[in-house]
Design brief:
This protein is of the alpha+beta class. Helices cover 51% and strands 12% of the residues. The chain has a 3-stranded mixed β-sheet, covered by helices on one side. The radius of gyration is 22 Å and the shape is elongated.
């Protein structure tokens, strides 16, 4: 019976310790990256050329500290295949 109680207590202590470590790590990483991404403000999808919102609510993609708007989730993979190309298109459209 004592071994069972000791085992349960050990599991509880380890669980609490792991939760504390995760919380401390999350706080440290949030303090390191306090810079928020900047919204480019593009109104047209740099992948498809469609207006944002015509295919539904649209999606946001963050690249190099900037938020780019895409017309739909289907454009994410294409954007990520050449983010330099599509980010330049979006910035040119937005006049950034």
């Amino acid at each position: 019976m004592n071994k069972l109680i000791v085992g349960i207590m050990a599991v509880l202590v380890l669980g609490v310790s792991a939760g504390w470590v995760q919380k401390a790590t999350a706080q440290d990483s949030s303090q390191m990256s306090s810079a928020q991404p900047i919204d480019v403000g593009n109104k047209y999808c740099p992948v498809s050329g469609r207006p944002i919102g015509v295919m539904g609510p649209g999606v946001e993609q963050v690249y190099n500290g900037k938020i780019y708007h895409l017309c739909c989730g289907g454009c994410i993979a294409t954007f990520n295949s050449d983010p330099d190309k599509y980010s330049k298109i979006a910035e040119a459209q937005a006049g950034s």
